[in-house]
Amino acid sequence: MATAVLLSTAVPEDPGKENCQKVIPNVIIPEVYIKHPLQNKWALWFFKNDKSKTWQANLRLISKFATVEDFWALYNHIQLSSNLMSGCDYSLFKDGIEPMWEDERNRRGGRWLITLSKQQRRSDLDRFWLETVRSICPAFASLVGTELTRVWLNHFCCSFNFVSLSQLLCLIGEAFDNFSDDVCGAVINVRAKGDKIAVWTTDYENKDAITHIGRVYKERLGVPSQVIIGYQSHADTATKSSSTTKNKFVA
């Protein structure tokens, strides 16, 4: 176990005064400044709907990250989803997988889809997206509940006042257990009629993985049990509008 390093403290100008200020030593935990690797390297993509360009030309890679700290550094310097213009997307995918149906890892896959009303953009969109990112990007579970976790979160995440500290603590740990490898990424679509968030998986025929991911994802978002979310294959979505695509599974 690493030993905390005590910084030197200032000496009161008049130690003899009865009401002299009590000096409390500052504590630095060395591990706070050691980066903590994620299980996979991830890439964040941005899409802006410019009708003068092709779909692929509108898709731009923002950055890649492979540690918890680098994720928060990136997240702290991009627009919140709720502030994006209508027609814009964020996509977060494992490095090497592009956020499109045609990618080999996505071609036989599908998505768990959450649809939000226009009124939910301010109340739920950012929280749901951050929870989605947290779910697909697990870090070392051994950090859960440690003093390092508390200090590190206060150090890097002080600006995220829309999420409670307890929610941020959920960042550390496995989300989908043995089925995390089936997750390819997640997409958020900001639209005038209503926003969407989806978790993409690699194989729509892997029922065990899909149903487990859907159940856990719904629980993590705090979606009421009476609200049904659906899983759609990309093949079906590509040939129909999302409003008419039949759900292969529900949770």
Structural description of this entry:
Residues 1-12, 14-25, 140-149 and 156-174 have low confidence and may be disordered. The longest helix is centred in the middle third of the chain and has 17 residues, at 120-136. The protein is built from 7 helices and 10 strands. Helices cover 26% and strands 22% of the residues. An 8-stranded antiparallel beta sheet has the order 4-3-5-7-8-6-9-10. The protein is of the alpha+beta class and 251 residues long. Strand 7 and strand 8 form a beta hairpin. The chain has helices at residues 55-58, 68-75, 120-136, 147-156, 165-169, 207-221, 234-239; strands at residues 5-6, 27-28, 37-47, 59-67, 89-94, 110-115, 183-189, 196-201, 230-233, 249-250.
Determine the fraction of residues in helical runs and give it as a percent range.
Answer: 25-40%
Oligomer: single chain
Structure summary, number of beta strands: 10
Mean pLDDT: 77
Strand content: 15-25%
- Global outline: globular
Return the string of H and E elements. EEEHEHEEHHHEEHEHE
Strand arrangement, major sheet:
4-3-5-7-8-6-9-10
Main sheet record: 8 strands, antiparallel
Radius of gyration based on Cα positions = 22 Å
Q: Give me the secondary-structure category.
A: alpha+beta
How many individual helices? 7
Give the CA-CA distance, first to last residue: 43 Å
